Amino acid sequence: MFDETGALLLDVGPHVISESPGFAQSIGAIAASWAQTEVNLNCLFAVLLDTTPEEAANELKKHRSAAKTTHWARKRATEILKGEELLSLIETLDRLDEVRLRRNRVQHDVWSRKANDVRRIFAIHSDEYLALTTELVASSEDTNLAISVAKTFAEKISDGFSIEDLEAISTEIHSVSHSLLCAMFRRIVMRLAARSD
């Protein structure tokens, strides 16, 4: 998108990432960490169910998203856990909910950059981008109106991420993933100890 002088207002598309290796690496780390986190969440949920692997797999198929699995893991935890174990797991699941929302912005939004900001890239929600495109098409016969729409949109885009911001998200995802893994093993050990008594 350009202003009336031809100056760049907002550059939008996947090339924004591919032309910025540091950002690409940070976004890739988030994707890889999140994949492991979802696996750890699913394994923890299966352990909380305390059932056969087949039944656990069938139950997980019903949920199909980290948000739903987190909800049901929280619900199951409140049914079977007590004390510090319950509080610790609920805190971990709360952290997972928070970082999932930040991760979703990174993984599902459209990326852009502003000519006057070289330290950050900007996330545009797909609904915002669709609304912009629709408005630009509607104003395509009036160049001044189209430029005004583009300028207003570019000014409104402010959800920027530096490489440090992205690294912080990746670090938090990794931390939550580790906490889920620890909770799973703690539950397994406690269950085995109870069965041997």
Notes on the protein architecture:
The termini are far apart. The model has no long low-confidence stretch (mean pLDDT 90). The protein is 74% helix and 9% strand. Strand 2 (110-114) and strand 3 (117-124) form a beta hairpin. The chain has one domain. The chain has 8 helices and 4 strands. The protein is an alpha+beta fold and 197 residues long. Strands 1-2-3-4 form a 4-stranded antiparallel beta sheet. This is Cthe-2314-like HEPN domain-containing protein. It comes from Luteimonas endophytica.
Topology:
Elements: E1 11-12, H1 15-18, H2 21-49, H3 53-63, H4 66-80, H5 83-108, E2 110-114, E3 117-124, H6 126-138, H7 143-156, E4 160-161, H8 163-196
Antiparallel strand pairs: 1-2, 2-3, 3-4
Organism: Luteimonas endophytica
Protein name: Cthe-2314-like HEPN domain-containing protein
User: Unreliable segments (pLDDT under 50, ≥5 consecutive)?
Assistant: none
The helix-and-strand class reads alpha+beta
- Helical region count? 8
Strand order of the largest sheet: 1-2-3-4
Portion of residues in helices?
over 70%
Strand portion, in percent? 5-15%
Q: How much is the radius of gyration in Å?
A: 22 Å
Average pLDDT level: 90
Organism: Luteimonas endophytica
Protein name: Cthe-2314-like HEPN domain-containing protein
